[in-house]
Amino acid sequence: MSPRPVPALLIAATAAAAAAPGAARADVAVVTTVPTLAALAAEVGGEHVSVRSLSLPTQDPHFVDPKPSLMLELNRADLLVAVGLDLEVGWLPTLQTGARNRKIQRGSSGYLDCSAYVGILDIPRHKVDRSQGDIHPGGNPHYLYDPRGAIGCAHGIAARLAIIDPPHAAAYRKNLAAFKRRVAAKVAGWKKALAAARGAPVITYHRSWSYLLDWIGLREVATLEPKPGVPPSAGHVAAVIRAGRKASARAILLEAYYPTRMPKLVASKVGARLVAVPSGPDLARGQGYLDYMDALVAALVGALR
Q1: Range(s) within the chain of domains with CATH label 3.40.50.1980
Q2: What is the pLDDT, as a whole number, of residue 2?
């Protein structure tokens, strides 16, 4: 796959009043690699943080153009929050080096790898090499589609903010507890809405849905990429169509940044619905983590009913 350069996403995640003329600067400048982590940091940090995401929800997080503007964002950061598991390995180290900011380097208190707070799926049981596609040696990095993973990340962010900014540690713990209560209330509704879909057969484009399938209880019957990051051949597409028909697949799941022409063709041949969604919340439009998950669950319910 070729890189998809996208400008920096510069979204302040503090309250609107914090952006008003003459407002005081937030205590901690947080930069995240993906929008979902930015939304979680905003929930936990509240008024005491400003948050930026280096990528957009319409952008493949495997490929980000390491522009000088992003290095400048990291130069000013107090905390860098990453997905980890080599999701950002192709671009984040370049930005960290160019940022000339010791605080956000690996091993420093200002660098947080959120994968340490998540139960990892799809860990390879064999030696990994490039012939197998874009395999992540540490396991599948797409854990943010599962609310359980999001809660784990929120815990990690709150704990790290408390270390970086001790005077507001109590506020971070309070914000975390409130966020967990809101998520718990939402999860009950999401599970109820998706209960009828449990066990439904689906096709995925990339192996990025493992955590969501595990959480909801969906069954993956085929993947359009023959290997992670490798575009499907005509023969592989034909095999996916056969598998989808045999299993009566009900939906094809993919992120909106992937091309949809071929998935639409497969959906029409199989009799499945296409679910193409952004990979995270649209912070520019004020969408938070719960708003994003509401939209994702609604799209799934509509496709799997």
Answers
A1: 16-186, 193-304
A2: 37
C-alpha angle 266/255/278, rounded to 5°? 140
As a whole number of angstroms, the distance between CA 188 and CA 304 comes to 18
Using CB atoms within 10 A of its CB, is residue 245 exposed (0-12), middle (13-18) or buried (19+)?
A: middle
277: enclosing H helix or E strand = strand 273-277
Pick the CATH number of 193-304 from 3.40.50.1820, 3.40.50.1980, 3.40.50.620, 3.30.830.10: 3.40.50.1980
pLDDT of residue 151: 98
Local structure of residue 9 (DSSP, 8 states): B
Cβ–Cβ < 8 Å for 54, 75: no
Residue 148: how many CB atoms within 10 A of its CB? 15
Q: Which position has the token pair 């660098």?
A: 111
Question: According to DSSP H, which parts of 76-168 are helical?
Answer: 92-99, 147-164
b/e code 61-83 from CB counts within 10 Å (16+ = b): bbbbbbbeebbebbbebbbbbbb
Q: What is the pLDDT of residue 27?
A: 87
Helix (H, G, I), strand (E, B) or coil at 56: coil
- Predicted confidence at residue 135, as pLDDT, reads 61
Fold of 16-186: Rossmann fold (3.40.50)
Residues of the chain with pLDDT under 50: 1-23
Tracing tokens 């990994």 back to the chain, one arrives at 128
pLDDT at 130: 54
- The torsion angle over the Cα atoms of residues 196, 198, 201 and 207, rounded to 10 degrees, is 130
Q: What is the pLDDT of residue 129?
A: 57
CB burial class (10 A; 0-12, 13-18, 19+) of residue 44? buried
Q: What is the largest CA-CA distance in the chain?
A: 63
CB 83 within 8 A of CB 51: no
